[in-house]
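User: Okay, second chain of the day. Same drill as before: sequence in, structure tokens out.
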Amino acid sequence: MKINTGKTRYIVLGLLAHSPQTGYSIKKAIEFQFNHFWQESYGQIYPTLKRLVAEGLAVETADSGNGRGQITYTITDTGKAVLKDWLSETPEIEKLRYEILLKLSFGSSTEPPVILGHLDDFIARINALIKEMEGTIQLLHSLTEQGDDHTYIELTALCGKYTYTAMRDWAQEAKSLIAERMLKNETKGS
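Assistant: Same drill. Structure tokens below.
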């Protein structure tokens, strides 16, 4: 389960400000637009939607036309005001959490090839994420050219691309440094 940071309400309000949504469509939008920097679970989204309705920040409409009985949520004017207030607040500084950094910190307790393998895997995953971000940027750019402006979402994808590129560059440099030290230690031992 994801840690509840208290920001779920603002993510949901932000998505509802764009268009009415179901809980499912909110989850999918978060996965598509924010996955490189934010995650929310259904266990966070649905209770948040219920609270927003109870607080008068959103309204729900039952749609039984598709046979599923889905509930669509729409932001209220009060919800828009709460979202606007939150947007004017200074963002908190997030802390970076990468397990690979923990493993590197304790790398002297294992053999260098183990850490090098972790770095290779990390680089492969990061390259896939960079490619994903580039695809997202292209898609959003083409939608903007068609008149559907996604500039701000495109900027978050661009941040993801730059962040992942920096992490990949760091991992490649880390591999070089480890290999250099291994060679130096082998030379000393000869």
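The chain has two domains: 8-88, 99-189.

User: Thanks, on to the next one.
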